Amino acid sequence: MKQVYIIKDRHPRLLLFFAGWGADETPFKDYQPADSDYMLCYDYRTLDFDASLLKTYQEINVIGWSMGVWAASRVMDKLQEADTSLIIKNSIAINGTPYPIDDTCGIPSVIYHGTLEGLTGSSLNKFLRRMCFNGEAFKEFLNITPRRPLEELKEELAEIERMYLAQPTTSFHWQQVVVGSNDRIIPPDNQLNAWRKEEENNRKKIRVHYTEDAHYQVELFRYYLQDIWTKD
């Protein structure tokens, strides 16, 4: 896993953002959370995480998007188990679930495998188009599209499946979730199923925000990676 500081100014709090499959820092580097360091995580070919980087923070706010919800669930669950003093003030999941490959709580298996087995430059472009709300949003996203090699993205999909099947559940608690009704990557109904399942399994309430957003929505990131922290 890559851990990249976007802001490293020795603030006492950290915004820890787990981006989605195929991501890098390009689409997310211009957000400026107030009075906070900001670290971006991506590339889930491994979930190796340098926990020493979190030692100095008095407060950590965790946000996961898309496949980053699963990755954050795995990583943060393990970190909290190892260090009970770790202070997670907020945990917010955006258009993702802890069950990345699941016919009722994530991406249906046939679609996931179809994406992996048929991944080409052209099919990736179609995937990115489906992420966006409309043609105009897609055109804007093309200006900040991640530039990672296609072979890396194939490896990442394969490793996500392998790791998920090895340990399908975690106990990390997401306090809030955002489910976009126009998400064409992870079916909204599956997301809602996943969070109902999490509430039942962990016996903890999850606040669900049901919106009209697409899977990738600039307004969502502007709010949850920047604006919300100016009001804290």
How are the SSEs ordered, and which strands pair?
Elements: E1 2-7, E2 13-18, E3 37-42, E4 59-65, H1 67-82, E5 88-94, H2 109-117, H3 121-131, H4 135-141, H5 150-166, E6 176-182, H6 188-202, E7 207-214, H7 218-230
Parallel strand pairs: 2-3, 2-4, 4-5, 5-6, 6-7
Antiparallel strand pairs: 1-3
Organism: Bacteroides intestinalis
Protein name: DUF452 family protein
InterPro entries: AB_hydrolase_fold, BioG
In short:
With 232 residues, this protein is an alpha/beta fold. Helices cover 38% and strands 20% of the residues.
Spatial strand sequence of the major β-sheet:
1-3-2-4-5-6-7
Low-confidence segments, given as residue ranges, are none
> Could you tell me the strand content as a percent range?
15-25%
Here the CATH topology equals Rossmann fold
Portion of residues within helices: 25-40%
CATH class category label? Alpha Beta
Distance between the termini: 29 Å
- Tell me the radius of gyration: 17 Å
The whole-number mean of residue pLDDT values reads: 95
